């Protein structure tokens, strides 16, 4: 039998996360302080169907009118309300006379947050990229009626690679630039407003044996939301690379992490710390100013990590992967806060940063004082009854003590009779 050790999880702060799995389900997990900070699944949207696997997700968690975009396996993009799961619209990403969705699945999806809201209608802009490098950027008008909400205002498509397969894409914090990379595709950066490529990476030089490292990027993220010039990319050869497009085309910093491919990379708000997860379930934080490993997160994951999300306000990150567990971690102590088993292998996780725990108003708290007084009077009555019972018990004990001297007196009488005889 393998040795196992139990980990004490202190619980999470008030938090809300949405997870997506291979059966096309969206599950809502919430943690409340009233329940000890233990996260629980409070809602599930959709029906299990492997043909509707969710491949990518993006959320715009603004306070008024939040939106959630998900990309499914059949080339369908859906816009949902992240508060109740109500569908807003559905868009097909299939191009006429193009490759089939099975051969050209969506690998990257971004929901732009720069939107102008109106009382009657609102618009949303989506950026989607497929495995074959077909990128599309479209704006869709959302109205109150679901039937008229599929009218596309503008659409623009282009190809980001001539060969190879795209495996990762990311949009910077200002939503003006995007990067793409994959198997056989060097990382390249595009200007979304102009629709032109502004930079392409160059493969590293040969190693000590004179061999080239094959190009195979699996994940990428911008290092800072305010600077699109620096980004971090993970490779299938368990390398983590830092690129600076203003300095050179080759990596500025490159180092190896364990022995399995890098599957997920997420940035921190400080602008220099990143969180990386690999195919064997290792999760760690790295300072990209020096490439120093700050430490690994305590608590071994048993499956490949596929997504890492950083909470925008709380010092918490969430990770999920093929072991079907959603885990919450403290970024300061790197300890496991809590874990939830969600039954299906997970593909992505996002936070709802505007989630606020329900607080009980003072008007509701004040009235129960009368009931508390009644309980206190009942408790005082019970305390007055208990001493009476104790007196009865003490009388019994006192009676039993009196029996012993009686027995002794009888024996004494028998002895006196014998003496007289």
TrEMBL record:
PROSITE patterns: WD_REPEATS_1, WD_REPEATS_2. Residues 360-421 are annotated as: Disordered. GO terms for cellular component: nucleolus; preribosome, large subunit precursor. The keyword Repeat applies. One of its GO terms (biological process) is ribosomal large subunit biogenesis. It comes from the Eukaryota. InterPro entries: WD40/YVTN_repeat-like_dom_sf (IPR015943), WD40_repeat_CS (IPR019775), WD40_repeat_dom_sf (IPR036322), WD40_rpt (IPR001680), WDR74/Nsa1 (IPR037379). Gene3D superfamilies: YVTN repeat-like/Quinoprotein amine dehydrogenase (2.130.10.10). Residues 388-410 have a biased composition (Basic residues). WD repeats lie at residues 298-339. The keyword Ribonucleoprotein does not apply. Keywords: Repeat, WD repeat. This is WD repeat-containing protein 74. It comes from Vitis rotundifolia.
């Amino acid at each position: 039998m393998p040795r196992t050790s139990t980990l004490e999880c202190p619980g999470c702060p008030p938090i809300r996360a949405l997870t997506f799995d291979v059966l096309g389900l969206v599950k809502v997990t919430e943690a409340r302080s009233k329940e000890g900070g233990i996260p629980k699944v409070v809602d599930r949207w959709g029906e299990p169907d492997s043909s509707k696997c969710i491949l990518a997700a993006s959320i715009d968690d603004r306070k008024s009118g939040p939106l959630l975009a998900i990309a499914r396996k059949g080339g369908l993009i859906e816009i949902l309300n992240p508060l109740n799961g109500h569908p807003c619209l559905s868009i097909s990403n299939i191009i006429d006379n193009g490759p089939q969705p099975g051969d050209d699945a969506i690998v990257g999806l971004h929901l732009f947050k720069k939107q102008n809201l109106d009382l009657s209608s609102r618009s949303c802009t989506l950026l989607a990229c497929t495995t074959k490098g077909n990128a599309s950027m479209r704006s869709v008008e959302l109205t109150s009626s679901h039937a008229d909400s599929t009218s596309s205002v503008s659409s623009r498509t282009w190809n980001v690679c001539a060969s190879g397969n795209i495996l990762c894409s990311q949009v910077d914090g200002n939503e003006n630039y995007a990067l793409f990379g994959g198997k056989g595709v060097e990382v390249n950066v595009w200007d979304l407003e102009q629709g032109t490529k502004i930079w392409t990476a160059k493969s590293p030089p040969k190693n000590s044996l004179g061999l080239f490292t094959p190009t195979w990027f699996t994940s990428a993220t911008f290092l800072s939301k305010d600077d699109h010039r620096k980004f971090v990319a993970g490779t299938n050869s368990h390398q983590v690379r830092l690129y600076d497009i203003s300095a050179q085309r080759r990596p500025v910093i490159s180092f190896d992490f364990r022995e399995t491919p890098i599957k997920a990379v997420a940035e921190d708000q400080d602008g220099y710390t990143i969180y990386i997860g690999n195919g064997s379930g290792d999760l760690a934080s790295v300072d990209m100013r020096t490439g120093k490993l700050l430490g690994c997160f305590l608590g071994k994951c048993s499956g490949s990590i596929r997504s890492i999300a950083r909470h925008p306000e709380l010092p918490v990150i969430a990770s999920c992967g093929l072991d079907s567990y959603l885990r919450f971690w403290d970024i300061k102590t790197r300890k496991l806060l809590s874990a939830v088993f969600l039954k299906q292998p997970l593909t992505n996780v996002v936070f709802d940063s505007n989630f606020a725990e329900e607080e009980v108003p003072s008007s509701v708290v004040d009235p129960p004082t009368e009931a508390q007084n009644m309980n206190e009077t009942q408790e005082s009555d019970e305390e007055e009854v208990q001493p009476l019972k104790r007196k009865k018990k003490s009388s019994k004990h006192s009676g039993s003590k009196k029996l012993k001297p009686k027995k002794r007196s009888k024996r004494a009488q028998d002895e006196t009779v014998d003496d007289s005889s």
